[in-house]
Design goal:
single chain, Growth Hormone, Chain: A
Length: about 425
């Protein structure tokens, strides 16, 4: 049964809004960690408390492959709709738990233990969300506009980041005092996230299952491990996902998450200026995603990925060097925007490329699991590698590391087919 344009757009909106909520909840943790760190860990200096909260944040990255496996399996066995609903409810539970946990002074070691549990739930959720939402958006879209519609996964991902930042600024500057934020105000964004997750779950319960999954579900599927089937039957595609993700995820975390710290620690900007530069550049970056996705619908996915691979390999080192010596707000903003325009060649199309590599029966698992592994290994360690290079007195080594990761991905792009012309997703 073919979807009407109205039902298709509603389903795409329902899938995208849930993704937005998921990433808002994910980034709220890092945005507000400076305020809640002292609540969950024994009294000590701020650096020790932040290191503890950062360690818990890192645990969320480590369990993302497990989330990609479990929810990818569930999406391929029980449907995209069921897995996306489960994913956002997991995030809701994690956020509610963070908001409700009493402090260390009240329940002792149970406080950081419960914080770890909450972050593990959120890591499982985000790990499963990527593969399933990428699969769903790619399957539900029409074949001729698959790149355009699937690009909204990163639009909502970036929007989640911006909303977390907006809530922080509003609470800091309009609604609460510094003392209130430290005492109890940091719980508010987690409550907001949990409530929004419930609304997103209701939207997702009303969306249509993709025709590709319905057709596959009508065929008898044998028992056995989907993960084994994936690794045995599609090893090249699995390695392709890891390889094409490697350079993209390192560049993404370099110019989004790490850039703000780099502006302060290396370029010498104030915290307020760095936040402003990051917010403006992220907004422009968000708006560009659908345009690049649309371009891929005309010229092909491979051409867009190759453009990213070439430009990121050649220009990362000069761009990072220029950013480190940027002398004004406008100059720093222009450099980061230029870098993010290059990264858009990966982020706008990577979801649809991965989805088009796999058959329907293992598509969500094939997209989600190897992607989560690559992000945990390369994306999650980007900031650590950068800071280690700086601490060693050779910060430029990190620039070459990012460039090298992009070069590896470029080689992968050269060796892979154009998935737009060889897509394994049936026309919707």
């Amino acid at each position: 049964m073919s979807l009407t344009p109205g039902r298709r757009l509603l389903s795409i909106f329902s899938g995208s809004v849930g993704n937005l909520v998921e990433w808002y909840d994910w980034y709220v943790y890092s945005s507000f960690s400076i305020y809640f760190a002292r609540s969950f860990f024994p009294k000590g200096d701020l650096t020790a408390q932040l290191l503890n909260s950062a360690g818990v944040f890192a645990l969320g990255f480590l369990v993302r492959p497990l989330g990609g496996w479990l929810l990818g399996w569930y999406a391929d066995r029980r449907g995209r709709k069921a897995a996306l609903t489960a994913s956002v409810l997991l995030m809701c539970l994690g956020s509610l738990l963070v908001a409700a946990i009493p402090g260390y002074a009240t329940i002792g070691l149970a406080a950081p233990t419960l914080l770890v549990l909450a972050r593990l739930l959120q890591g499982l959720s985000v790990g499963g969300e990527y593969g399933t939402s990428a699969t769903y958006l790619s399957e539900i879209a029409t074949a001729e506009r698959r790149g355009f519609y699937s690009s909204f996964q990163y639009v909502t991902l970036i929007m989640g980041q911006l909303l977390a930042l907006a809530v922080l600024v509003l609470l800091q500057r309009v609604f609460l005092t510094e003392a209130q934020l430290y005492a109890w105000g940091w719980r508010i964004p987690f409550v907001i996230g949990a409530l929004c997750a419930v609304v997103a779950a209701l939207f997702r319960r009303g969306m249509d299952e993709s025709e590709a999954y319905r057709s596959a579900a009508a065929r008898q599927r044998a028992g056995g491990s989907l993960l084994v089937q994936l690794l045995v039957s599609h090893p090249r595609q699995v390695l392709t996902v890891v390889g094409l993700t490697m350079g993209g995820t390192v560049c993404f975390y370099t110019f989004t998450t790490y850039a703000q710290k780099f502006l302060v620690n290396t370029a010498g900007f104030s915290n307020a200026a760095a936040t402003g530069i990051s917010a403006l550049s992220l907004f422009i970056y968000m708006c560009v995603q659908p345009l690049v996705g649309l371009v891929s619908d005309f010229v092909g996915r491979r051409a867009v990925l190759l453009s990213f691979g070439v430009l990121a390999t050649l220009f990362t080192v000069p761009l990072m060097s220029a950013l480190g010596s940027a002398g004004s707000f406008g100059q720093a903003l222009a450099i980061i925007v230029l870098a993010l325009l290059i990264v858009s060649g990966y982020t706008a199309v990577n979801a649809v490329v991965k989805a088009e590599l796999f058959p329907t029966e293992v598509r969500a698992l094939g997209v989600g699991f190897p992607y989560a592994v690559a992000v945990a290994v390369f994306g999650g360690t980007t900031e650590y590698v950068a800071l280690q290079a700086k601490a060693a007195g050779h910060e430029a080594w990190f620039y070459w590391y990012v460039s090298g990761c992009a070069a590896v991905s470029f080689i992968v792009y050269l060796s892979m087919p154009d998935t737009k012309r060889h897509s394994r997703i049936p026309a919707a």
